[in-house]
Write a structure and sequence with these properties.
This protein has 162 residues and is of the alpha+beta class. The chain contains two helices and nine strands, in the order αββββββαβββ. The longest helix has 24 residues. InterPro entries: LEA_2.
Length: 162
């Protein structure tokens, strides 16, 4: 009986050691998730051009390099233009960064934004397009982006929507 008890304890100890070794071999989960982009701020310059601050969010569990973005910007039904950039920035896991893009807006969108600023009202916008990223130690991937939101005049900052 003592021999069986000793054998059971030895098998139990071996099982525990095996489980511990198996737990050590599995590293952190490397998950690539769809990134997001949104307008963080839009500044209207004196010459009528715009400065768009685009917030890029990396929801992955690994760092990703954001190689390029091509997004169509609309205010309501008015096409403002294309936000094109090749930031080539690396964003850490579950983090974000901001890219500033200059834009010469279409006349109708320029008037819609000017009207919202003059009236102190928010204005709806949409972004649609593509972001190309390279996950850490992997090949480049493209993600489709589609976002709708709104910007409001920033108090005390003339010509700025946030």
């Amino acid at each position: 009986m003592k021999a069986m008890w000793g054998l059971g304890r030895a098998l139990g100890a071996m099982l525990v050691v095996g489980l511990l070794l198996a737990a050590c071999t599995s590293g952190p989960v490397r998950r690539v998730s769809e990134p997001s982009a949104r307008l963080q701020q839009l500044s209207v310059r004196a010459d009528g051009s715009w400065s768009a601050e685009v917030r890029i969010e990396n929801f992955s569990s690994i760092p990703m390099r954001f190689d390029s973005l091509d997004l169509t910007l609309q205010f309501g039904d008015e096409l403002a233009g294309h936000l094109l950039a090749q930031p080539a920035i690396s964003i850490g896991p579950e983090s974000a960064d901001v890219v500033t893009i200059d834009l010469k807006p279409a006349a109708a969108a320029k008037f819609a934004v000017a009207d919202a600023l003059a009236g102190g009202r928010s204005i709806a916008y949409s972004l649609e397009g593509r972001i190309d990223v390279t996950p850490d130690e992997a090949k480049q991937r493209s993600f489709d982006i589609k976002r709708t939101s709104a910007l409001s005049p920033a108090p005390g900052l003339p010509g700025v929507l946030r």
